[in-house]
Amino acid sequence: MLARIGCLYCIPPLKITNTHIDIHYIIRGHLRKGRKKTKGKGRIPYTMLSRVAKRAFSSTVANPYKVTVLGAGGGIGQPLSLLLKLNHKVTDLRLYDLKGAKGVATDLSHIPTNSVVKGFTPEEPDGLNNALKDTDMVLIPAGVPRKPGMTRDDLFAINASIVRDLAAATAESAPNAAILVISNPVNSTVPIVAQVLKNKGVYNPKKLFGVTTLDSIRAARFISEVENTDPTQERVNVIGGHSGITIIPLISQTNHKLMSDDKRHELIHRIQFGGDEVVKAKNGAGSATLSMAHAGAKFANAVLSGFKGERDVIEPSFVDSPLFKSEGIEFFASPVTLGPDGIEKIHPIGELSSEEEEMLQKCKETLKKNIEKGVNFVASK
Questions:
Q1: Fold category of 65-207 in CATH
Q2: What percent of the chain clears pLDDT 70, i.e. is strictly above it?
Q3: Which DSSP state fits 298?
Q4: Which string of DSSP letters, residue by residue, matches 266-282?
Q5: What is residue 13's predicted lDDT score, i.e. its pLDDT?
Q6: Using alpha carbons only, what angle is made at residue 179 by residues 177 and 182, rounded to the nearest 5 degrees?
Q7: How far apart are CA 357 and CA 191, in angstroms?
C-alpha cells in the first residue's frame, strides 16, 4: 500500500519505500535541530534528499555488478564463490560447472548479503549462455588440479581445451566482460583466451587478466616469516609469469634488500615453487585451492574497485604487455593500475639487482615458449 502513495515530504512527491522512510528520520532530525526549513508545507527538496541518501547509505548500497564463475563446483571455485558472495560490490553472482553448481548456489544463497546467486549446468538449455549473458566479470578456475609429480605443462593437455571452449562462449555471450583466468598453466591459458577472442573479433587487451596474485600473497607471507614482520604490511612486486622460474619476486625493491644470500635464495625458491609445497602436503588430494581462491577474490575485488572509479588501484597481473613485446613476449606479469575500462596503466618493472636480471633472462626464455604453446594450440584447432 505504501508503495502507491507519493511521499508528502518530498518535492516532487516520490514513491515511498522502507529506505525512503529511514532517510526521512535523518533529514527531519536535522530540520528539528534548527536548520533552515524548506518552502512548500515543510517539504524536503529532492536534491537535499539525494545528497543525504547518498551520504547515509553509501556504505550499504551495493554496486550492480554481475559476476560469473566458470568452474564453481571445484576446489577453487567453491571457496572463490563464497568470497564473492561476501563482496558487497557483487549483486548478481552466477555459478557454472559441469556438476554441483546448483548445489553450491543454493548453499550460498542462504548467506544474508546483498546479492542473488544462481547455479547453471550444461544439462539445462542455454545453461552456459545464461550464466554469461551481460555479465561484467568472468572468472575461470575451471579445469583439473595439479597432482604430485605433475607440472603446469602436464595440465596443459587437459585444461587448454576447457579454457578455449569457455573463452569462446564468453566471446559470444559477454564480449565486454573482464576475464580473469585462474586455470593453469596461466602462462599458456591467457594466450589461448586472447587468440579465441581475437578470432571472434572481440579482443580487448585491457580486460584480459591472468591472475598471479597468489605469487604476491605468498611472497608477502614468506618474507614476513623470514624477517619476522607483519605480513599485512609487506608488499613484494612479483613479475614475469605464473610458474616456476618465470616467477620473479623483486626482493631488491623491498625493505629487505640486505637479507643474506642464503636466506634470499631459499626465499625466492619457496615463492617460485610454493604450489609444490601445497600439492605435496595434500598428498594427492588437491593443489593450492584455498589460498588461490583468496587470491582470485582479492584480484576480482580490485578490478571491480577500478570499475567503480576508485583511485590508485594497483595489482600485479599477467597481461598483454608492451614491456618485452619487442622480444616476442606478448604477455608479461607486472603491476597494473585498474580503472573503469580495465587496465589504465602497465607499470615498468623498475631497477633490478644483478641476480634479478639473470632471473629475468631465464624467465623470458621459458615464458616465450609458454606463450607460443597457447597461441599454437588455438591455431591448430
A1: Rossmann fold (3.40.50)
A2: 83
A3: H
A4: HHHHHHHTHHHHHHHHT
A5: 44
A6: 160
A7: 25
Cell numbers that stand for 139 in this block: 572468472
Does residue 54 sit in helix, strand or coil? helix
Domain boundaries in the chain?
Answer: 2-57, 65-207, 213-371
Residue type, 122: P
User: Which residue has 552466477 as its cell numbers?
Assistant: 94
SS3 string, 186-254, reads HHHHHHHHHHHHHHHCCCCHHHEEECCHHHHHHHHHHHHHHHCCCHHHCCCCEEECCCHHHEEECHHHC
Going by CATH, does the domain composed of 213-371 fall within 3.90.110.10? yes
For 233-265, write each residue's pLDDT tens digit. Answer: 999 999 999 999 999 999 999 999 889 999 999
> What is the enclosing helix (H) or strand (E) of 45?
strand 44-45
- pLDDT per residue over 12-60, tens digit each? 444 444 444 444 433 344 434 444 444 444 444 444 444 434 433 344 4
The answer to whether domain 65-207 and domain 213-371 are alike in fold is: no
| pLDDT at position 133 over 90 | yes
Burial letters 269-307, b for 16+ CB under 10 A, else e: ebbbebbbebbeebeeebbbbebbbbbbbbbbbbbbbbb
Across 34-38, 154-158, 209-213, 339-343, least confident range: 34-38
Instruction: Tell me: cis bond preceding 141? Omega within 30 of 0 counts.
Output: no
Residue 145 phi, psi dihedral angles, 5° rounding: -80, 160
SS3 at position 116: strand
Query: Model's pTM, two decimal places?
Result: 0.83
Residue positions annotated with a catalytic role: 242
Q: How is residue 168 annotated by DSSP?
A: H
DSSP H/E element including 358: helix 354-379
The three cell numbers locating residue 24: 526521512
At 316 the three-state DSSP class reads strand
152 pLDDT band, cuts 50/70/90, is: low
